[in-house]
């Protein structure tokens, strides 16, 4: 095995997978190191007991709260990373999200790059992930240079009825922009069957455009791209000057091996990327690699997320429910002069899922009745970057997540607004579950990008300010997170960074 490569990418998730895909045609020798394996295709993929009760696809790692209490993080180590189980609702951040925005709890800081810098890459990302959507119906839609590659996924009758009722109330319900391989007019032509086990299940028929299907597998068609699975990167070593990564230490199927490359890209997800940098400190980098600013691990953001199960007398026989969103309150509410966030439908809550949300223990028959009559929503609002919200790692590699949610008032406002609308539509019972920090689905920040090395970790091309050949290309770079789902933006960013590499390679 050759141990030296042109480009070595650590983590085959959304960021790393996209970068490998975009750089594969350059002919450069690329090594992709992934700690997990391929997620098995098996009947359990679509089994709610396996997914919710057994948590079959989640890591059994323990992370820790600041008081030392362990928790089981909702992360998934596979080729494709967390996108193997994601909801596939891929959205552009709004133009205004790239500027400074006054929120209830403070300022969401401006990015050093504008929406215009990202726009061409959003268009490419939407093509790569086969996005379905309907342009022109969203009051917050940013300028777009191209239509969505595919038309919207239609609402089923009960959801269309709700969309019409919301429109009658002056709202602008939108079709969610979804990354599924489906042909609505000719369903036999593409694999997606619009099943009821999409979000947050793996896709048994490989129809969900996750990072494995959309990026890693196509990248592996090129001979110059090599993927090693079950390859856990434990440390990055610098040369004597401390300016270059000289070698990468890997536990490959339990054996220690080293690899080197001209360019090393860390793409382990925001928390694990921070961990790897922090645990790779040396004499030249006493506080961890790339950490002269002291910001590696800081500004950790999670969205404020709540599930809202709304029950009406009218049955809801919808199979594929995740088609509708409401963005009317993204920038302000009817009486709130500050941004609230976005509302979307989530995968249809089966009775097993409701078991976790029930305020008291309930018989299966009751849960089944509620599931058959509920419409299930997901409310997302912005979490602002805070220095004190951070990831720390001890000498044994134990991860501690210090995170206090902020900006929670707009979250409560948005849930109340949604409930008020739904009450008028005949819904009478509401169960809410606000996600705890342990959920870590939308982990963002920890290595923010910026022009000034004293207040950012990465430069505008996502290269570490402190090292010449180290890049971070995953969800770590966001200076602020907006309230849209993050993955399309980090995929667009990886395509942007790939263009930077290509121009360097030409040079
Ligand atoms: C249930 C669920 C639903 C979601 N729904 C949506 C949605 O609808 N829309 C949306 O935009 N986002 C969604 N997300 C979030 C989305 O999955 C993430 O934004 C995205 O995967 C982040 O990409 P990433 O590259 O930062 O990390 P990941 O995709 O997690 O990739 C990191 C990769 O690095 C590997 N790795 C980690 N450490 C190491 C190491 N030391 N050595 C080698 N490999 C390593 C991991 O195994 C993983 O493959 C969802 C997430 C979850 C869990
Ligand atoms: S809805 Fe389509 S993409 Fe989602 S799990 Fe079912 S078949 Fe796969």
UniProtKB/TrEMBL annotation:
Family statement: Belongs to the GMC oxidoreductase family.
Identification of the protein by name: GMC oxidoreductase
Transmembrane segments: none
Organism placement in taxonomy: Bacteria, Bacillati, Cyanobacteriota, Cyanophyceae, Nodosilineales
Keyword RNA-binding: no
Entry annotated with the keyword Metal-binding: no
This protein's UniProt keywords: FAD, Flavoprotein, Oxidoreductase
PANTHER family found in the cross-reference section: LONG-CHAIN-ALCOHOL OXIDASE
Domain Glucose-methanol-choline oxidoreductase N-terminal: 187-303
InterPro entries attached to this UniProt entry: FAD/NAD-bd_sf (IPR036188), GMC_OxRdtase (IPR012132), GMC_OxRdtase_N (IPR000172), GMC_OxRtase_C (IPR007867)
Domain Glucose-methanol-choline oxidoreductase C-terminal residues, every copy: 431-494
């Amino acid at each position: 095995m050759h141990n030296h490569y042109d480009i070595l990418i650590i983590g085959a998730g959304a960021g790393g997978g996209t970068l490998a895909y975009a750089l594969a045609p350059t002919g450069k020798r690329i090594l992709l190191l992934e700690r997990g394996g391929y997620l098995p295709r098996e009947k359990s993929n679509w089994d709610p007991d396996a997914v919710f009760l057994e948590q079959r696809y989640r890591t059994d790692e323990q992370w820790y709260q600041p008081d030392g209490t362990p928790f089981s993080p909702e992360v998934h180590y596979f080729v494709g990373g967390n996108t193997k189980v994601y909801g596939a609702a891929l959205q552009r951040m709004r133009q205004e999200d790239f500027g400074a925005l006054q929120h209830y709890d403070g300022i969401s800081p401006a990015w050093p790059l504008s929406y215009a810098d990202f726009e061409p890459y959003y268009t490419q990302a939407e093509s790569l992930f086969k996005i379905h959507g309907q342009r022109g119906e969203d009051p917050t839609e940013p300028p777009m240079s191209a239509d969505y590659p595919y038309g919207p996924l239609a609402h089923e009758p009960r959801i269309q009825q709700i969309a019409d009722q919301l429109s009658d109330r002056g709202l602008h319900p939108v079709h969610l922009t979804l990354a599924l391989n489906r042909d609505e007019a000719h369903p036999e032509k593409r694999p997606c069957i619009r099943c009821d086990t999409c979000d947050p299940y793996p896709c048994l028929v490989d129809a969900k455009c996750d990072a494995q299907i959309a990026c890693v597998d196509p990248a592996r068609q090129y001979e110059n791209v090599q993927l090693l699975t079950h390859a856990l990167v434990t440390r990055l070593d610098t040369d004597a000057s401390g300016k270059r990564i000289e070698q990468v230490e890997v536990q490959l199927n339990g054996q220690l091996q080293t690899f080197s490359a001209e360019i090393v890209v860390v793409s382990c997800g925001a928390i694990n990327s921070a961990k790897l940098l922090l645990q790779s400190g040396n004499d030249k980098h006493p506080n961890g690699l790339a950490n002269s600013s002291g910001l590696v691990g800081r500004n950790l953001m999670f969205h404020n997320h709540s599930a809202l199960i709304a029950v009406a007398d009218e049955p809801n026989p919808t199979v594929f429910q995740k088609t509708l969103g409401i963005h009317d309150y993204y920038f302000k509410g009817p009486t709130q002069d500050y941004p609230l966030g976005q509302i979307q439908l989530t995968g249809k809550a089966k009775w097993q899922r409701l078991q976790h949300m029930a305020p008291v223990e309930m018989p299966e028959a009751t849960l089944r009745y509620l599931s058959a009559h509920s419409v299930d929503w997901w409310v997302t609002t912005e979490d602002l970057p805070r220095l004190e919200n951070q990831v720390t790692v001890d000498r044994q590699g134990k991860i501690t997540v210090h995170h206090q949610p902020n900006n929670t008032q707009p979250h409560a406002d948005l849930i109340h607004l949604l409930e008020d609308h739904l009450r008028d539509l005949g819904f009478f019972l509401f169960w809410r579950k606000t996600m705890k920090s342990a959920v870590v689905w939308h982990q963002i920040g920890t290595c923010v990008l910026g022009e000034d090395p004293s207040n950012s970790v990465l430069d505008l091309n996502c290269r570490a300010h402190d090292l010449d050949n180290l890049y971070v290309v995953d969800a770590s770079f966001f200076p602020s997170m907006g309230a849209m789902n993050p993955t399309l933006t980090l995929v667009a960013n990886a395509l942007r960074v790939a263009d930077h590499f290509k121009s360097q390679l030409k040079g």
